[in-house]
Automatic annotation (TrEMBL):
InterPro entries: Transposase_17, Transposase_17_sf. SMART domains: Y1_Tnp. Residues 9-124 form the Transposase IS200-like domain. Residues 211-237 are annotated as: Disordered. It comes from Denitromonas halophila. It comes from the Bacteria. This is Transposase. Residues 223-237 have a biased composition (Basic and acidic residues). GO terms for molecular function: DNA binding; transposase activity. GO terms for biological process: DNA transposition.
């Protein structure tokens, strides 16, 4: 089955997952993490993409961003990925591919899911049992969004700015978002949308995406529904 084209909409937030090929490690040491972030910053500036949140795991990366142009995300990921592979192969004496051929992505309804995706991304190391709290992991945007560390790569989303009047207020309100566990329904919605390329949001948002792109933003109804007794009866009337 042919893949649906990715959804790219300027000004609309997007969640991206970039995985190592065959789930292999794409970061070996501290220098690798720093190099990835440096290359990402340069590519984001060049292609006018605002990075809001990130986490660099051992064998994959999560990014939350807003592109300024339709091709911004695709071009940024291609340029950054290519540059990092060159660095990684040279540094570690290897050859060949490093990333999966296609990164996964979804457009995000800011009003419904944006801060939830911020949290989903930065809690990844906790879910992976690498740390007990997001604050303990050095390679995520939690260090800036919640703790105030200066990270030039990041551009706060307007909804993050609305968390408070001052930086201290915003960081405090942001930390409060991380109390308690994430609902399973949110985890499932984010994972399914990003993995399959569907829009992440409510019906209104999905209708807007379809109107703008002409592309289905959500899966079709299951065939079993059409074969149900209620469906057959409605067609016979």
């Amino acid at each position: 089955m042919a893949r649906l084209p990715r959804l790219y909409i300027p000004g609309c937030a997007q969640h991206v997952i970039q995985r190592g090929n065959n789930r292999e490690a794409c970061f070996y040491d501290e220098g690798d993490y720093k190099a990835y972030l440096s290359f990402l910053k340069n590519a984001a500036i060049k292609y006018q993409v605002a990075i809001h949140a990130y986490v660099l795991m051992t064998n994959h990366v999560h990014l939350l961003m807003t592109p300024g142009s339709e091709q911004g995300v695709s071009r940024m990921m291609q340029a950054q990925g290519r540059r990092y592979v060159q660095y990684f192969n040279f540094t570690h004496g290897r050859t060949g591919t490093l990333w999966e051929r296609r990164f996964k992505s979804t457009v995000v309804d800011a009003d419904s899911y944006l801060l939830t995706v911020y949290r989903y991304i930065e809690v990844n190391p906790v879910r992976a049992a690498m740390v007990t709290h997001a604050s303990e992991y050095p390679w995520s945007s939690y260090q800036s969004n919640a703790l105030g560390k200066a990270i030039e790569l990041l551009t706060p989303h307007r909804l993050y700015h609305q968390l408070g009047i001052t930086d201290v207020e915003r960081q405090s309100a942001y930390r409060a978002l991380f109390r308690g566990g994430m609902p399973d329904r949110d985890l499932e919605a984010i994972r399914e949308a990003t993995s399959k390329g569907w829009a992440l949001g409510d019906d209104r948002f999905k209708a807007q995406i379809e109107a703008k792109t002409g592309r289905r933003p959500a899966p079709l109804g299951r065939g079993g529904d059409r074969k149900s007794m209620a469906f057959r009866e409605s067609k016979s009337q």
